[in-house]
């Protein structure tokens, strides 16, 4: 119960921040929340189930285009489009998972990377429909929720997506399924001996993760008005991994914290230098060298055992 | 031009791709075979080789071939030094843990890319070929330099093969590959072997880049494609098997080149990436590897 109250308090604080911050910062926060949905989904696969995927960009892009194509070509309204994008992400994850989960470890990383790359190239190949590298411009954000200003609508949708993601992920990891997922991460052979099928559990985790990624992709495309093949590049597989590593893999709030920390780190670096890639690279190397458990994971290890 | 000569031209172009691909992929394969490290930054070592080649050729005066020879000697050395440094500073501290090293080499990829962007700039710049000699076929003229690339790559590969199988250093390397603890017990400095192998792998990518840069131009984002193709080659050829890697490079270089020539480069890459994913799923030992 305490855990639920703590998470609801975090959500309430975010809602207040969104309401009182000036427009520029509120938009930044909306962006962070949408990306944090992506990271939260990644955390379900990587943090809890131990599936280190390098192909999540594909699920994100499936969400982006699952929402953007119907909006562009059939004039679908944004909210059903987000639901559609979410399903597209999950469906894509199911297809990739059915094949890729036959491998593990390094092979799994490479197989997912290859599928994502094939997806990216396919988006380029059908550039006439998808817009390729130039992408598609989404309709004006004013249409998001009739009656609300674009900024408000953006904040409301981003918040709703993140709140849903956080609550769902908390519910999953506190359920039976969540505990079996952790068991898979810790010792697959032993869980198999106890009668759990590793393949089904991992596939479920990956599909859940894909649903989150799809929703984040759809939200990102519609809220910020752009869908392009670049969302399927490897960079968008690395980002959620970086966020989760930074915040703490296997912690519920780590993805949000990591996303926010990286966002402001890159933003701050962009003000002093143009070398923003350097920040990403150095952050990755330093994290893996000195704090592989991330911010919250390290705190939990150092005594704050209550961190969920 | 009728179909026959057209096909010949396509094959020759693809052979150039296959030759540099073989060099790059053998570098990646050596590192994976010996150290069990999947080096995601391998493509950036390739890029670094090309960029260094540009710096060397522009700062060395005189006829083109002097600058080129200097680049062929200096660029791989420079890249090898960077790689050895990365091994010492980062990979060694991670105990060569496979998943951690992948994350670390991704970090390295961004760092190298940013370094190239900052010090070299976003432009693509050409390097003059060391000689301009055209071979006249009955149907078309063909650049002699491209043929030189093919032969140079074969020579380097033969040298690597000779070094691995006939020299003491190669023996030590293979011993480390088979069993690093026993090798250590026999007094082999495993850390030094690993640093050496990582540097050698990077240097091979750099040599490939110096060879290709008079044809392709140096650009800070040029590392992505060779990395992808090298990955595909190494996996299809069987992880860590050098002979398999070379054969796979030939097959993939040729088929990639031919599909790209007659259909579309993007389609060729889509097919190749899907192929590699399926190979890993259904035949993890590679197409040419022995059944594990």
Quick rundown:
Chain A has 308 residues and is mainly α. Chain A has helices at 2-20, 23-48, 56-74, 78-100, 105-125, 127-130, 150-173, 176-186, 188-193, 198-224, 235-247, 254-272, 276-290, 294-301; strands spanning 136-137, 226-227. Chain B has 292 residues and is an all-alpha fold.
Protein described:
The complex is a heterodimer of chains A (308) and B (292). Chain A is mostly helical and 308 residues long. Helix content of chain A is 76%, strand content 1%. Chain A has one domain (2-232). Chain A has helices at residues 2-20, 23-48, 56-74, 78-100, 105-125, 127-130, 150-173, 176-186, 188-193, 198-224, 235-247, 254-272, 276-290, 294-301, and strands at 136-137, 226-227. Chain A is globular, with a radius of gyration of 19 Å. Chain B has 292 residues and is mostly helical. Chain B has one domain. Chain B has helices at residues 3-35, 42-59, 64-91, 98-119, 144-166, 168-178, 180-185, 190-216, 224-237, 242-262, 265-282, and strands at 134-136, 141-143.
Keywords, separated by commas or semicolons:
heterodimer, A: 308 residues, mainly alpha, two-stranded antiparallel ribbon, 14 helices, 76% helix, globular, B: 292 residues, two-stranded antiparallel sheet, 11 helices, 2 strands
Q: In which order are the strands of the major sheet of chain B placed?
A: 1-2
Question: Span between N and C termini of chain B?
Answer: 48 Å
Strand content of chain A is under 5%
Number of discrete domains of chain B:
1
Structural class category of chain B = mainly alpha
Q: State the helical fraction of chain B.
A: over 70%
What's the order of the H and E elements of chain B? HHHHEEHHHHHHH
Largest interface: A-B, 39 and 40 residues
Low-confidence stretches of chain A: none
Q: Radius of gyration of chain B, Cα only, in angstroms?
A: 19 Å
């Amino acid at each position: 119960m305490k855990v639920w109250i703590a998470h609801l308090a975090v959500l309430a604080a975010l809602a207040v921040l969104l309401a009182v911050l000036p427009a520029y910062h509120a938009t930044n926060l909306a962006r962070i929340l949408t990306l944090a949905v992506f990271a939260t989904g990644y955390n379900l696969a990587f943090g809890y189930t131990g599936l280190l995927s390098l192909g999540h960009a594909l699920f994100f892009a499936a969400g982006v285009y699952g929402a953007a194509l119907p909006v562009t070509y059939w004039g679908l309204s944004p909210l059903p489009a987000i639901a559609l994008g979410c399903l597209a992400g999950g469906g894509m994850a199911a297809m990739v998972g059915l094949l890729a989960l036959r491998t593990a470890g390094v092979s799994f990383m490479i197989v997912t990377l290859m599928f994502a790359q094939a997806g990216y190239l396919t988006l380029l190949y059908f550039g006439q429909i998808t817009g390729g590298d130039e992408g598609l411009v989404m309709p004006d954000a004013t249409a998001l929720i009739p009656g609300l200003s674009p900024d408000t609508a953006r904040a409301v949708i981003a918040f709703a997506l993140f709140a849903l993601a956080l609550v769902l992920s908390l519910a999953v990891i506190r359920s039976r399924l969540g505990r079996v997922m952790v068991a898979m991460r810790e010792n697959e052979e032993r869980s198999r001996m106890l009668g759990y099928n590793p393949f089904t559990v991992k596939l479920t985790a990956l599909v859940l993760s894909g649903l989150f990624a799809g929703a984040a992709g759809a939200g990102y495309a519609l809220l910020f008005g752009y869908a392009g093949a670049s969302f399927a590049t490897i960079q968008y597989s690395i980002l959620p991994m970086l966020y989760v590593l930074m915040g703490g893999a296997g912690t519920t709030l780590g993805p949000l914290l990591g996303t926010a920390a990286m966002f402001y780190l890159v933003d701050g670096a962009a003000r002093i230098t143009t070398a923003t890639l350097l920040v990403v690279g150095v952050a990755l190397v330093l994290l893996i060298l000195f704090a592989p458990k991330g911010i919250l994971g390290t705190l939990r290890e150092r005594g704050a055992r209550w961190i969920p | 031009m009728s179909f026959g000569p057209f096909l010949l031209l396509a094959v020759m172009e693809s052979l150039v791709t296959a030759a540099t691909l073989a060099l790059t992929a053998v570098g990646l394969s050596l590192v994976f075979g010996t150290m069990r490290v999947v080096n995601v930054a391998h493509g950036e070592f390739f890029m670094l080789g090309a960029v260094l080649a540009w710096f060397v050729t522009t700062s060395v005066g005189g006829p083109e071939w002097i600058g080129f020879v200097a680049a062929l000697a200096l660029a791989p050395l420079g890249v090898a030094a960077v790689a050895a440094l990365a091994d010492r500073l980062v990979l060694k501290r991670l105990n060569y843990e496979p998943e951690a090293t992948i994350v670390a080499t991704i970090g390295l990829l961004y760092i190298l890319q940013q370094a190239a962007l900052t010090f070299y700039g976003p432009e693509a710049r050409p390097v003059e070929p060391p000689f301009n000699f055209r071979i006249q076929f009955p149907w078309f003229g063909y650049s002699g330099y491209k043929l030189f690339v093919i032969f140079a790559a074969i020579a380097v590969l033969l040298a690597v093969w000779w070094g691995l199988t006939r020299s003491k250093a190669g023996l030590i390397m293979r011993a480390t590959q088979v069993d690093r603890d026993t090798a250590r017990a026999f007094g082999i400095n495993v850390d030094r072997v690993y640093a050496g192998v990582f540097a050698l792998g990077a240097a091979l990518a750099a040599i490939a880049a110096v060879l290709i840069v008079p044809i392709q131009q140096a650009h800070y984002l040029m590392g992505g494609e060779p990395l992808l193709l090298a990955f595909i080659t190494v996996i299809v050829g069987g992880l860590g098997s050098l002979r398999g890697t070379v054969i796979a490079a030939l097959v993939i270089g040729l088929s990639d080149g031919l599909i790209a020539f007659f259909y579309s480069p993007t389609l060729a890459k889509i097919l190749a990436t899907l192929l590699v994913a399926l190979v890993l799923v259904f035949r993890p030992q590679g197409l040419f590897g022995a059944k594990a």
